[in-house]
């Protein structure tokens, strides 16, 4: 049923584009003529999927006339940020996709820039974090994990798909700290990607894994892992048997957001047009199809809200990284 | 199972789906020949097209065609102009390119096509029969064993350490290992050796280094040493024929490497690149002495081994993807994304809940392999003819191809500067008779070696993991054997010959 729905929607979208009906269809509500999406990483990554999915939904819904894409790798995204700042005058038609690492990497000084050097357009989607164990593990909940951890901190290896001090590590540290444990005592084992980290968990090399919730849900539904806790304020409807950290008495909330940035000094009316296009996108069936297919969670933060959200995240992460000795 | 195969066949052999396979193979082959675009990028480009088809089986069949086509296309550029576009075809150029230089381009391409076909097909048969029971094999290896496996892979450099060259080969390997530490590793939250250059933060790009080490110095060599390119072999270049003796000698290699490659591909932390290096190293070291010397200079066995191994491994990597829902490589990670977008959730329940998807993936692999062979064998004479183009046109073409390859995936002009810089160094080393392949092997394996080594150290609290895990010990002992045994054998042979001479 779900599948048929998606297919119908997609087919309708494709038909509209193919029949060149888009301009006619768009007459009523096209907001922006065209958007050029700058993707700071290679084809096939999370940033790539976000930009292309958003562009697809916006064009198919007729909110923008045309979307084009450009992948610019290098410096973990830093090259693309530099490009936006250096070409501020000529790149006003460009939106760059980014996510939580822009905050982390600016803090560590790996980027000579900060998010506030760019024009904040909007945060559009997000993914909560989760801590999972293999389905056959003795550990049943967060209390069980903490018990195992206090008994043998260095023997309770917890892995993740990011560098120490990166996203997955910070989630573990944040959770342990909120549970009254010493975040520095965590034996965090880094893997180069989420997939290899998951293999490490299932092979028994590590006891628990810090990962994105969307990645964990698929494996939890297949009966391979148990989700111990989710960093969302309330249970996530897509998988509501997984408890939150909050309801287990661990005061942790965290979302790995993804959103869009424009060049510094973008004229007000153009920024408003971009924001309007993105805001209207949420109500379209085209977006719903893309969102559902990718398992994204709508977390919309517009303009100034986005700034407040990012500044808050920067402070939380910054304090934690200082405590962990990364700053 | 028979029921499943029939179900899969039924889906795959509809006219529409056959068209998908043929289209996918053609697109994959031609785009795959461009060095900058490996299977991963091509699949990423094709995903929106596949998803718009809507029918998951048809979409997967298209993507499988693209995948196999891209792997085959990548081998073509490795063989013809020494430009391996993806890490898993680096070993292909070790012997493929020398063969092409000897005027046997047609033969080399044919062997590559047949080895790929066999690797892919044997892999698909193994996947079909053993996939459910192999899920546990995929989880057998811990970081310690992966580390040991990389060490075995590193022993492939022995092929370039011929008499008097041992020191040079080791030096180049070390240089490669050092280059692999540039950038931000998976284990340290700090950039290393980037000298504050932002472009170096994600490390040196594989394509940039591969083009700089292989394709660029070769092109420069042709310009600076014209005598070498005179023996083009004339009309033989298009010749596809393989003699019966040759076929007999490569058949066991293909058989062994298809199985070994498949098993390595099943491991989520290894993949096609490791499989191709291991295949090359193992086949070289078990070959008879006379043939062993041929490796690296144009051995058909040396070409068949990595080609069958990397294709079988590509198929093997579907085991963790389909049975556990775990992507072991970049390409399978993208395929996982495509599957999810098509509302298919891979994992242990796929075979139970949606058997038609499982079987149509496997059947589409067979069909992809067959179509690829049928499409490409007649094309080989025309593809090989590229080398018959006069040098005044061919060399600028190779240079353009190389530069474009480094730029296309990244859209970052700094890559071009690095390519030229490394290329000049590599050309000098090439003239000084330093083998460049060990450098690239060291570079490719370096990061994985380091990651797995330090992960094991952290998990087991020290270097003791080498002694504590029998499988790690076993693999390391195997690596030592691979390097020491041939040397010992040849020394004994020499010692045996001496008295006879007296």
From TrEMBL, chain A:
<protein>
    <submittedName>
        <fullName>Tripartite tricarboxylate transporter family receptor</fullName>
    </submittedName>
</protein>
<comment type="similarity">
    <text>Belongs to the UPF0065 (bug) family.</text>
</comment>
<keyword id="KW-0675">Receptor</keyword>
<keyword id="KW-0732">Signal</keyword>
<dbReference type="InterPro" id="IPR042100">
    <property type="entry name" value="Bug_dom1"/>
</dbReference>
<dbReference type="Pfam" id="PF03401">
    <property type="entry name" value="TctC"/>
</dbReference>
<feature type="signal peptide">
    <location>
        <begin position="1"/>
        <end position="26"/>
    </location>
</feature>
<dbReference type="InterPro" id="IPR005064">
    <property type="entry name" value="BUG"/>
</dbReference>
Automatic annotation (TrEMBL), chain B:
<feature type="transmembrane region" description="Helical">
    <location>
        <begin position="169"/>
        <end position="188"/>
    </location>
</feature>
<feature type="transmembrane region" description="Helical">
    <location>
        <begin position="12"/>
        <end position="34"/>
    </location>
</feature>
<feature type="domain" description="DUF112">
    <location>
        <begin position="18"/>
        <end position="440"/>
    </location>
</feature>
<keyword id="KW-1133">Transmembrane helix</keyword>
<feature type="transmembrane region" description="Helical">
    <location>
        <begin position="357"/>
        <end position="380"/>
    </location>
</feature>
<dbReference type="Pfam" id="PF01970">
    <property type="entry name" value="TctA"/>
</dbReference>
<feature type="transmembrane region" description="Helical">
    <location>
        <begin position="392"/>
        <end position="409"/>
    </location>
</feature>
<protein>
    <submittedName>
        <fullName>Tripartite tricarboxylate transporter TctA family protein</fullName>
    </submittedName>
</protein>
<feature type="transmembrane region" description="Helical">
    <location>
        <begin position="262"/>
        <end position="282"/>
    </location>
</feature>
<feature type="transmembrane region" description="Helical">
    <location>
        <begin position="143"/>
        <end position="162"/>
    </location>
</feature>
<feature type="transmembrane region" description="Helical">
    <location>
        <begin position="79"/>
        <end position="97"/>
    </location>
</feature>
<feature type="transmembrane region" description="Helical">
    <location>
        <begin position="416"/>
        <end position="449"/>
    </location>
</feature>
<feature type="transmembrane region" description="Helical">
    <location>
        <begin position="324"/>
        <end position="345"/>
    </location>
</feature>
<keyword id="KW-0812">Transmembrane</keyword>
<dbReference type="InterPro" id="IPR002823">
    <property type="entry name" value="DUF112_TM"/>
</dbReference>
<feature type="transmembrane region" description="Helical">
    <location>
        <begin position="41"/>
        <end position="67"/>
    </location>
</feature>
<feature type="transmembrane region" description="Helical">
    <location>
        <begin position="469"/>
        <end position="488"/>
    </location>
</feature>
<feature type="transmembrane region" description="Helical">
    <location>
        <begin position="200"/>
        <end position="224"/>
    </location>
</feature>
<feature type="transmembrane region" description="Helical">
    <location>
        <begin position="109"/>
        <end position="131"/>
    </location>
</feature>
<keyword id="KW-0472">Membrane</keyword>
């Amino acid at each position: 049923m779900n599948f048929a729905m998606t297919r119908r929607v997609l087919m309708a979208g494709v038909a509209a584009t193919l029949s060149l009906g888009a301009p006619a269809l768009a007459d009523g509500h096209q907001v922006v003529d065209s958007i050029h999406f700058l993707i700071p990483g290679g084809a096939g990554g999370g940033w790539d999927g976000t930009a292309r999915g958003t562009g697809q939904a916006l064009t198919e819904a007729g909110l923008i006339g045309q979307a084009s894409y450009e992948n610019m790798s290098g410096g973990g995204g830093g090259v693309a940020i530099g490009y936006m700042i250096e070409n501020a005058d000529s790149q006003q038609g460009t939106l760059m996709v980014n996510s939580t690492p822009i905050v982390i990497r600016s803090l560590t000084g790996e980027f000579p820039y900060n998010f506030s050097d760019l024009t904040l357009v909007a945060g559009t989607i997000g993914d909560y974090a989760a801590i999972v164990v293999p389905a056959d593990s003795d550990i049943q909940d967060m209390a069980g994990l903490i018990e195992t951890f206090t008994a043998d901190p260095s023997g309770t290896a917890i892995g993740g798909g990011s560098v120490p001090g990166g996203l997955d590590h910070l989630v573990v540290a944040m959770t342990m700290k909120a549970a009254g444990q010493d975040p520095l005592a965590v034996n965090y084992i880094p893997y180069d990607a989420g997939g290899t980290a998951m293999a490490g968990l299932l092979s028994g090399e590590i006891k628990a894994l810090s990962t994105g919730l969307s990645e964990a849900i698929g494996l939890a539904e297949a009966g391979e892992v148990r989700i111990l806790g989710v960093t969302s304020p309330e249970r996530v409807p897509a998988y509501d048997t997984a408890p939150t950290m909050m309801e287990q008495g661990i005061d942790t909330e965290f979302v790995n957001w993804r959103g869009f940035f424009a060049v510094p000094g973008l004229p007000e009316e153009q920024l408003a047009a971009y924001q309007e296009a993105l805001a209207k996108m949420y109500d379209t069936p085209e977006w719903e199809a893309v969102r559902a297919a990718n398992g994204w969670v709508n977390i919309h933060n517009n303009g100034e809200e986005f700034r407040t959200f990012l500044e808050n995240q920067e402070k939380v992460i910054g304090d934690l990284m200082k405590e962990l000795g990364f700053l | 199972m028979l029921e499943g195969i029939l179900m899969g066949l039924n889906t795959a052999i509809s006219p529409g789906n056959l068209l998908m396979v043929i289209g996918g193979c053609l697109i994959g082959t031609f785009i795959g020949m461009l060095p900058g675009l490996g299977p991963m990028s091509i699949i990423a480009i094709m995903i929106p097209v596949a998803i718009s088809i809507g029918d998951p089986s048809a979409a997967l069949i298209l993507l499988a065609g693209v995948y196999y086509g891209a792997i085959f296309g990548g081998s073509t550029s490795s063989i013809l102009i020494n430009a391996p576009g993806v890490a898993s075809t680096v070993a292909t150029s070790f012997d493929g390119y020398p063969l092409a230089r000897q005027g046997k381009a047609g033969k080399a391409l044919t062997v590559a096509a047949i080895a790929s076909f066999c690797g892919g097909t044997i892999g698909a048969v193994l996947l079909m029969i053993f996939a459910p029971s192999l899920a546990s094999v995929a989880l057998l290896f811990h970081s310690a064993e992966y580390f040991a496996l990389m060490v075995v892979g590193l022993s492939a450099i022995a092929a370039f350490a011929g008499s008097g060259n041992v020191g040079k080969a080791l030096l180049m390997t070390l240089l490669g290992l050092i280059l692999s530490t540039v950038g931000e590793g998976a284990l340290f939250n700090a950039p290393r050796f980037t000298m504050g250059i932002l472009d170096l933060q994600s490390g040196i790009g594989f394509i940039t280094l591969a083009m700089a080490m292989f394709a660029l110095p070769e092109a420069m060599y042709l310009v600076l040493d014209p005598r070498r390119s005179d023996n083009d072999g004339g009309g033989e270049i298009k010749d596809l024929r393989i003699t019966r003796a040759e076929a007999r000698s490569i058949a066991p290699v293909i058989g062994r490497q298809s199985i070994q490659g498949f098993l390595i591909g099943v491991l989520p932390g290894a993949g096609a690149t490791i499989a191709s290096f291991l295949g090359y190293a193992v086949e070289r070291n078990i070959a008879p002495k006379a043939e062993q010397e041929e490796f690296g200079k144009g051995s058909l066995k040396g070409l068949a081994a990595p080609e069958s191994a990397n294709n079988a491994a590509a198929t093997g990597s579907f085991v963790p993807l389909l049975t556990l829902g775990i992507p072991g490589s970049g390409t399978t990670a993208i395929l996982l994304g495509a599957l999810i977008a098509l509302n298919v959730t891979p994992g242990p329940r796929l075979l139970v809940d949606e058997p038609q998807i499982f079987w149509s993936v496997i059947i589409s692999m067979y069909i992809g392999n067959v179509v690829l062979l049928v499409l490409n064998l007649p094309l080989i004479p025309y593809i090989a003819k590229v080398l018959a183009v006069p040098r005044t046109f061919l060399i600028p073409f190779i240079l353009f191809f190389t530069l474009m390859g480094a730029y296309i995936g990244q859209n970052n002009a700094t890559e071009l500067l690095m390519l030229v810089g490394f290329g000049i160094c590599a050309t000098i080393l090439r003239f000084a008779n330093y083998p460049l392949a060990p450098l690239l092997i060291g570079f490719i394996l370096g990061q994985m070696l380091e990651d797995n080594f330090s992960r094991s150290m952290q998990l087991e609290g020290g270097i003791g993991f080498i002694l504590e895990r029998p499988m790690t010990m076993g693999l390391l002992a195997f690596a030592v054997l691979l390097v020491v045994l041939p040397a010992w054998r040849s020394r004994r042979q020499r010692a045996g010959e001496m008295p006879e001479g007296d």
